[in-house]
Design brief:
The structure is a single chain. The chain has about 150 residues and is an all-alpha fold. The chain is about 60% helix and about 0% strand. This is Nop domain-containing protein.
């Protein structure tokens, strides 16, 4: 609601890119930083979101960027979409929470099959030994074919 109030309307907010949504509300600090050639702010109104608040201080900038990107997508769907369901917002929130867990716990990204797998050296060695290279099945181009191609040119 604060973002919509700051942008003026939902349609105006939908026109903003994620980078602008991220620093919306920190314009004064942004222009001061640009004028004095200092670091620009990482977050504006989005800093007050509960997802940002529960993140470790060193990850707040990254999570702010992720949250702004997902929020911008949800805003556009909300403004221009015809469906009244908030399914994309729930999916985006789950993605942001997953990124927070990844940064905080250092866990791996989930695999395509739905669960994270650890590297098992014994299993990798067993898989590679069962499917060893067979030189007999290898095909080698003959020298005569190469000479014939050179003569044609």
């Amino acid at each position: 609601a604060r973002l919509i109030a700051h942008a003026g309307s939902l349609m105006n907010l939908a026109k903003h890119p994620a980078s602008t949504v991220q620093i919306l509300g920190a314009e004064k600090a942004l222009f001061r930083a640009l004028k004095t050639k200092h670091d620009t702010p990482k977050y504006g109104l989005i800093y007050h979101a509960s997802l940002i608040g529960q993140t470790a201080p060193k990850h707040k900038g990254k999570i702010s960027r992720v949250l702004a990107a997902k929020t911008a997508l949800a805003i556009r769907v909300d403004a221009m979409g015809e469906a009244d369901e908030a399914t994309i917002a729930y999916e985006n929130r789950a993605m942001v929470e997953q990124r927070i867990r990844q940064l905080d716990g250092g866990a791996a990204l989930p695999q395509a099959n739905g669960g994270a797998e650890k590297y098992d050296a014994a299993a990798a060695k067993a898989a590679s030994s069962s499917a060893s290279f067979s030189a007999a099945s290898d095909v080698v181009a003959g020298k005569e074919e190469k000479k014939a191609k050179k003569e044609k040119k």
